[in-house]
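Why show two proteins at once? Because comparison is the fastest way to build intuition. When a single record is shown, students tend to memorize it. When two are placed side by side, the eye starts asking what differs. So, the first record is below.
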Amino acid sequence: MNHPDLDMATVRHQLESKRQQLLDEGRESAQSRDVVELDQTANGRLTRMDAMQSQAMAKATQQRREASIRFIDLALRRIDDDTYGECIECGEWISARRLTLDYATLKCIDCAQ
């Protein structure tokens, strides 16, 4: 049984909206993760270093987006399996307030510590 204090249609909508937002952001920032051109005639050394640093930051941001998408997908599967809102460690209900703050939360506050 899914969490009794939450409307699963609302939760699903929120999760799917957040997932789509993350996918859109990833597509929009794809160019910033492209390979940095190392042509010394086109750019100076500091400009290339700045570009490489920006590229590394964009890649790290994309990795965080992908991790968030995986957590969202897991939460959606838990809704489908009727286990949404149960702590994956102790099996107790995660507080509705905690889930409202982050719908992809997997553990109750006690098990998360």
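Second record. Ask yourself what differs from the first in the token line.
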Amino acid sequence: MTRSYDYEGFTLEISVESDFSIGLKKPEPAKPGYVAVVRIIQATNTVAVFSPLRFGEVCGRPFATEADALMGGFSAARKIVDDLFCHDRH
């Protein structure tokens, strides 16, 4: 799932991926989770401002649903734009 949003002169591209974490093997089956992959692109430039950023929930856990990952990624991308590029507008 991928969505694009226009925000403050930037395009926020949010995609959702299944989280297939590699790590310690646990005896119980792992619950599927999702991560948000965020790209922030200036409207006047075709190159992303940052490399793609991956977001999960608190403490690095994956989101429980695709919708949660999409909204979490969108919120994180807006906060990055606000904090780094729009500080003089507020």
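One difference worth noting in the second protein: The beta strands are 2-7, 10-18, 34-42, 53-55.
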